[in-house]
Amino acid sequence: MQIPRHGQTKEEILDKLAQFKGQDLPWRAGRVFAYVYDAGKEADDVTKAAYLLFLGENGLDPTAFPSMVGLETQIVRMVADLLRGDANVVGNFTSGGTESILLAVKTARDYARARRPELTRPRMILPRTAHCAFHKAAAYFDIEPVVTPFDPKTFQADVAAMRAAIDERTILLVGSAPGYAQGVVDPIAEIGRLALERNLLFHVDGCVGGLQLSFQRKMGGYEVPDFDFSVPGVTSISADLHKYGYAAKGASVILYRDRSIRRHQIFACALPATYALVNTTVQSTKSGGPMAGAWAIMHYLGQEGYERITRDVMAATAALIKGIDATGELFVLGKPHMSMFSFAARSINVYQLADEMNARGWYVQPQFSTVDSPPNLHISMNQGTIAHVETFLGDLRASLDAVKRAPRIDFAQVKRDVDELLATAGDRAFEQLAALSGLQGGQLPKEMAMINTVLDCLPDELTAQMLVEFMNDLYV
Ligand SMILES: *Cc1c(COP(=O)(O)O)cnc(C)c1O
């Protein structure tokens, strides 16, 4: 394929793009319980107008685009206020949770290097419920992740295990508010005390929860453990605007307790024979669109708008959890603090259930088992899905019946097949695992149940390798 010789008309182009879109999940219909946070049509219009207004602006150079500094400062101050930061708290706007987390980890590494030049091979302590973005940061910045367990009942980080894992190479502790998978907030105050006692930096991952948990706290009537800058020992927090801030994608904030820590985030280079470069974040050239979009939605909804949405979303979540519990077969893991949670099954294969729901036009997100937890399905409620709780529950019961009537995949049997294959297939293991799971090179699969079951039965490193091979085949 080549760039077309002759330019095409706007109509032709938009028509083709609409066809591409037709292949995706029907999120506008409120039937997708992950990936999308929808504040409704009018809010969407405001975001789009603001985004387009700043589409061409470049955040690379604040002296050329002071508007970008102005918008960023206001967004950072609004989020810092919500997270009870004082005037010393500083931060930056980033492209998403992953970038915020990459920056927090890079900052911790360089902060440690500046203070402890003798330190080689730094480590960070990650509860198993911490987001994969921290492992990505570990891989990118050559920091060793030390994974600690969670309490299998509450899904909260085991702080005693974190304490035991600290050594002279440790540079950072991590907690989540909440962890994405189960929506449970870690014992942040306790980890904060540990961080102070051992003089360590402590990052709170508030990517998904930073905003909504703060509105829950402000409104009262919800159990919200302290997780923000009011907790002594917390030195940085990431909070995404493109999740429960309902901003367009490409919007997150990373905050630090003070400038002496944030200094290590900023990169400058004056060496090559070109313009001297100084960047606060990972990106250099960056569109002003995401920032203007985020600024606009925060002003459009206002605190009242966010509170109204939060109240509705929490009520819908409670109704959904009640309906799931009432099946008798399905049960919610841990005690979620906000509007995201996961559920597992007593006797059926949840991945088959996810496919049944998919066939009925819904998307729920499969999550793998760990040594301390069963395979489960994740749900993030948001403004766009609240109207569909009853129809969802009806289809969930129908799907459950379908799986019970015709169970297709026996987890234990697949586990035996996978183990045997790993023991005997040698070099051809990957090929045979792909065949067993029904994965075909370079194609997006239709049914996921068998693939998910096989991936879940593999050791974690092999699962990751399979996924790498899959993506390497999928993209040309
Ligand atoms: C979504 C999420 C991230 C990663 O954010 P992206 O915006 O997807 O890069 C990190 N931590 C938690 C808890 C999240 O929910």
Structure description:
The protein has 476 residues and is an alpha/beta fold. It has helices at residues 10-21, 41-53, 66-82, 97-115, 132-141, 159-165, 188-197, 210-219, 259-262, 289-326, 350-359, 389-405, 411-424, 429-437, 449-457, 460-474; strands at 90-94, 123-127, 144-148, 170-176, 201-205, 236-240, 252-256, 267-269, 277-279, 330-332, 340-345, 365-367, 376-380. The strands form three sheets. Strands 1-7-6-5-4-2-3 form a seven-stranded mixed sheet, sandwiched between helices. Strands 10-11-13-12 form a four-stranded antiparallel sheet, covered by helices on one side. The chain starts with 9 loop residues before the first helix and ends with a helix. Pyridoxal-5'-phosphate is lined by residues 96-98, 101, 131, 133, 176, 180, 205, 207-208, 240, 252.
